[in-house]
Amino acid sequence: MLPYKRAVEIADSLWYRHIDGTVIAVAQDHAGGDVLMVAHMNREAVIRTLTTGIVHYWSTTRRAIWMKGETSGHYQYLVDFIPDCDRDAVLLKVVQVGAACHLGTRTCFSRRG
Amino acid sequence: MLPYKRAVEIADSLWYRHIDGTVIAVAQDHAGGDVLMVAHMNREAVIRTLTTGIVHYWSTTRRAIWMKGETSGHYQYLVDFIPDCDRDAVLLKVVQVGAACHLGTRTCFSRRG
Hints:
Two copies of one chain form a homodimer. By secondary structure, chain A is α+β, with helices and mostly antiparallel strands. The first copy, chain A, has a single domain (4-96), classed as Roll (Ubiquitin-like (UB roll)). Chain A has helices spanning 4-12, 43-52; strands at residues 23-29, 35-41, 56-59, 64-67, 76-83, 89-96. Chain A has a four-stranded mixed β-sheet, with helices on one face. Chain A binds chain B through residues 18-19, 24, 26, 28, 32-35, 37-38, 82-87, 89, 91, 101-103, 105, 108-113, and chain B through 18-19, 24, 26, 28, 32-35, 37-38, 82-87, 89, 91, 101-103, 105, 108-113.
């Protein structure tokens, strides 16, 4: 968890060029390395994620900030936050509680969609 | 490598809701599990990737199909292609030749951007 000022510095260093002014976020299981899901983060979601240590996204369907697990209990605890070379995507290394996917599977990439 | 007809079936099953009519593509090293890069694929890039076994993307800056490695020699050979639960993103498991990143690092997520 970072102080607010540092979180803002990092948030302001990103390039929000995707849907609704977002970066693409890829969540990867910290231990096993499985890619769990792909979602979007706006500036506020980045700040909340970095200051709380719990991953927040921007829901492009609900057009709202969304704390992953807020209804399911399937939180993602942030272990590492790594922007890519052009800063329009971030890799989130996380500890995933339960299932990352709303279908109940561990990852969203499980050939059941 | 898939027959053209099967590649088209898979390509037509995806939801191209991102920039320029694309899906988000996450390339992951097949062996080590490192997330190498995030890019976009339109329908044609998906078909070329599945039929040739060499990963093609849609360049949102050049607005053109782009065979990864066509200038650098740093090709990505496709090992697996897994759509996510809502079919607007795909996970590409690849064998990466050389560096995935144009900065010369193995991955685009290496804190040098």
